[in-house]
Amino acid sequence: MPSLTVDQAMFRHVSTVLRISNLNGLSPLPITFSGTGGLDLSDVDLREADLSGANLSWDNLRGANLRGANLRGANLFGADLSGANLEGADLTEAILVNTVGMTVIGHQDLDR
Known about the structure:
Number of domains: 1
Structural class: little secondary structure
Pfam family, one: Pentapeptide
Protein name: Pentapeptide repeat-containing protein
CATH topology: Pectate Lyase C-like
Organism: Yersinia kristensenii
Largest sheet: none
Number of strands: 0
Number of helices: 1
């Protein structure tokens, strides 16, 4: 039987909850997130969320509201950002290789 760490179990549970929950219209939350990648976060409101250093690789972020989010050093490898709002997001040192549908709207903080 394969072993499972507590962190993996917690993230698998979070992934399941996110898939079955309607998160649209929630107020911005002061969260820090470090997932395992591959989550369906489409149309989720993550305004001003602290996602610094988060593993968002291969996540579905289609239509997500990431306005003002801290994505500093986040891993967005292969993430689908089609229609996502990145206005004012801090993408300093973020990994943006193979992202899908990334549209830059307004000023992103890439220079720091």
